[in-house]
Amino acid sequence: MELFPDRAEAGARLAERLLDAHDPVVLALPRGGVAVAVPIARRLGADLEVLVTRKIGYPPTPELGVGAIAEGGEPVFDLRLLDRLGMTPESVADVVERERRELARRVHAYRGDRPLPPLEGREVIVVDDGLATGGTARAALRAVATHKPAKVTLAVPVGARETVRSMRDEADEVVVLLTPIDFRAVGQWYERFDQLSDADVLELLGRE
């Protein structure tokens, strides 16, 4: 299966699948989702903004996500995973609070004091660079839903098949270009998959 050269090319290809959107707002999940979203917003002539999310990690192994939180939303937990780990949402309250602080820092870094654009009654396209477990995307979609948009589309270049299926319960539409059988990680489907910094995000948004 052909790889995407980079996030920008993936976004350009994804944009061609989104041309039916009517005056949408494109919300990118930083950091990687911003690089995918920029060519989409440009192709659609759409407003572009970031929607900040943070993974809630399992304390002994923070890389293992047991949930996620998005700005303006409540934490969304993988309750089955927590149960298997012998934990409850209350067990990670300290982690949630720490991630709330980091989320607020990033919101300020990316947008300053500006709120999200009005979403009520509008089409919203939520963009990330891929779907593995889908934790942050799920938190983002639920946060967006509280704004009462007319339609919510989740758009990603690549995703794990089971995760993509589960997202159809969270969004009105899910647009994905690749759902490989042998999906292991998002980065394996890109020739270039650099880690982006806050400065990279601001440059992509034209806010250096």
Automatic annotation (TrEMBL):
The keyword Transferase applies. Residues 8-172 form the Phosphoribosyltransferase domain. GO terms for molecular function: glycosyltransferase activity. InterPro entries: PRTase-like, PRTase_dom. It comes from the Bacteria. Keywords: Glycosyltransferase, Transferase. Pfam families: Pribosyltran. SUPFAM superfamilies: PRTase-like (SSF53271). This is Putative phosphoribosyltransferase. It comes from Nonomuraea polychroma.
